[in-house]
């Protein structure tokens, strides 16, 4: 079966009607073959604003549904996702080019966050706080916030939505999602899956979850709308620079999940077998198109000549090819622009004295499919393109001799998402995790930079935007906190001993 027919058939099984897939202005191509697989209708700014109004009306009803009952909707969403896992995972592979285990893994992540959020729906705890006034009680109450806007990137087309939606829904909010214009089909599939869960649940108002099909301009409608108190935006730092100030201007909240330029440090005592495997997955997995992809590696000079030839061999032999037809570990880049960006970075690295292994186009899939051999670049210093995120499989490798110097170089870039150290020396690992160590939101020991679990809070510092999503107490960003003080005495003592006695 050709890829377009397979896409239509998969979407049909997932609950998206075929007539939505043709005759529109947004051409969707599969990076697997470069072929067109759909042409969707985009919405107008006016339609987007109307959908936000509808989501606001839905919020006003949903906030009064008890949180554990809201959790029941998310439990049903998890059930529907379990039933749809194979089809949705395959659709992720078609639309983004992920290898099957990563496509399915992304759907598993959605299921995991639903399970987490169901438990959370009974744990939206507030504190009771000691008060200085007799006969008083002070406490914190957490309330629903409103319409949560979600803007997502192409490379996690479904998981990022679910991280936000599962938490936002149990917290009593409605959700308006602007998916990447490169991956709208998986978004339509999620909408259909959610609709099935909503039909089975009680008290779900119409318009609780909306999907806006369109480009950055439609994203701006969400960013500027006064009835959207929180926008969770995932994408490039360039996008964050546009979105952040606009939200700040109207005092809306932002969860910004932006670009990464993640690094690892390989110390003298590292288990090199483990390091090679972790580096290979972190740097070449998902064709280098994860926000947490390993992009820079600092290797101690005592192990450099052992480790780097092994990495070079892995780069020369890793299988590159269609994620649908082969057992390749590296699938395609998303499009030609990504391929050109990679070649430009490699040229710049060479000009800075870099020695490149790999990086060439692999001729498979068709004229408009962009497969590349991942590139390992040995650099004399951290300069030029090493300082920026290029969203492609390029790993820059540099030597170091002192750990403090490696940590300083590690932190000397704009982004601050993920980091790792490979060592069996407790002093080195603790130093890396300390206040003087990695400045990233994620700091790992003896595992790679990518592949986070949903139980932890996910996000990064500096130009990565400072947002946190997913596990731990990330839910608090989706609610508003009220501090309540109750006086159950017959007196009115004022705080700080202030007196204000009127007759
Ligand atoms: P992108 O910035 O091109 O687009 C992301 C989303 O932002 C899209 O939906 C796009 O339509 C929207 N958008 C663009 N300009 C906008 C504007 N002015 N107003 C509102 N919306 C706008 O990113 P991409 O190419 O889809 O994804 C790759 C990037 O995303 C990489 O930089 C990667 O590191 C980052 N990313 C970060 C995380 C994270 O959690 N930190 C996760 C995944 C991807």
UniProtKB/TrEMBL annotation:
The active site is at residue 257. It comes from Kumtagia ephedrae. Belongs to the aldehyde dehydrogenase family. This is aldehyde dehydrogenase (NAD(+)). InterPro entries: Ald_DH/histidinol_DH (IPR016161), Ald_DH_C (IPR016163), Ald_DH_CS_GLU (IPR029510), Ald_DH_N (IPR016162), Aldehyde_DH_dom (IPR015590), ALDH7A1-like (IPR044638). PROSITE patterns: ALDEHYDE_DEHYDR_GLU (PS00687). It comes from the Bacteria. The keyword NAD applies.
């Amino acid at each position: 079966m050709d890829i377009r027919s397979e896409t239509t058939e998969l979407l049909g099984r997932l609950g998206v009607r075929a007539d939505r897939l043709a005759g529109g202005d947004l051409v969707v191509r599969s990076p697997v073959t470069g072929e067109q697989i759909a042409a969707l209708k985009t919405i107008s700014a006016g339609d987007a604003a109307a959908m936000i109004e509808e989501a606001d009306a839905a919020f006003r009803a949903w906030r009064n549904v008890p949180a554990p009952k809201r959790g029941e909707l998310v439990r049903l969403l998890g059930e529907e996702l379990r039933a749809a896992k194979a089809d949705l995972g395959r659709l992720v592979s078609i639309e983004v080019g992920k290898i099957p285990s990563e496509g399915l893994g992304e759907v598993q992540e959605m299921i995991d966050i639903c399970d987490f959020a169901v438990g959370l729906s009974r744990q939206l705890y507030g504190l009771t706080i000691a008060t200085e006034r007799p006969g008083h009680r002070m406490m914190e109450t957490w309330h629903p916030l409103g319409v949560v806007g979600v803007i997502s990137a192409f490379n996690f087309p479904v998981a990022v939505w679910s991280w936000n939606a599962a938490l936002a829904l149990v917290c009593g909010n409605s959700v308006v999602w602007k998916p990447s214009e490169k991956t709208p089909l998986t978004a339509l599939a999620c909408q259909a899956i959610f609709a099935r869960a909503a039909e089975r649940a009680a008290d779900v108002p119409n318009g609780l979850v909306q999907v806006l099909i369109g480009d950055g301009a439609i994203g701006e409608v969400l960013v500027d709308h006064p009835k959207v108190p929180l926008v969770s935006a995932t994408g490039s730092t360039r996008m964050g620079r546009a979105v952040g100030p606009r939200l700040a201007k109207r005092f809306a909240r932002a969860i910004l999940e932006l670009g990464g330029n993640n690094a690892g440090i390989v110390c003298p005592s590292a288990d090199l077998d483990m390091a090679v495997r972790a580096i290979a997955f972190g740097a070449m997995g998902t064709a280098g198109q994860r926000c947490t992809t390993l992009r820079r590696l600092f290797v101690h000079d005592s192990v450099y000549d052992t480790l780097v030839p092994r990495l070079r061999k892995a780069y020369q032999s890793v299988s590159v090819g269609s994620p649908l037809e082969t057992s390749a570990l590296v699938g395609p880049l998303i499009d030609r622009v990504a391929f050109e960006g990679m070649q430009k970075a490699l040229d710049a690295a060479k000009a800075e004295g870099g020695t490149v292994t790999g990086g060439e186009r692999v001729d498979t899939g068709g004229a408009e499919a962009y497969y590349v051999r991942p590139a390992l670049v040995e650099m004399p210093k951290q300069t030029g393109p090493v300082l920026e995120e290029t969203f492609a499989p390029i790993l820059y490798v540099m030597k170091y001799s002192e750990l403090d110097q490696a940590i300083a170089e590690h932190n000397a870039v704009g982004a601050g998402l993920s980091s790792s150290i490979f060592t069996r020396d407790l002093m080195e690992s603790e130093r890396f995790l300390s206040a003087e160590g990695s400045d990233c939101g994620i700091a790992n020991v003896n595992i790679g930079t990518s592949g986070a679990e949903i139980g932890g809070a996910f996000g990064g510092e500096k130009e990565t935007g400072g947002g946190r999503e997913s596990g731990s107490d990330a839910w608090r960003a989706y609610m508003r906190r009220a501090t309540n003080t109750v006086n159950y005495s017959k007196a009115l003592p004022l705080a700080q001993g202030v007196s204000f006695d009127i007759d």
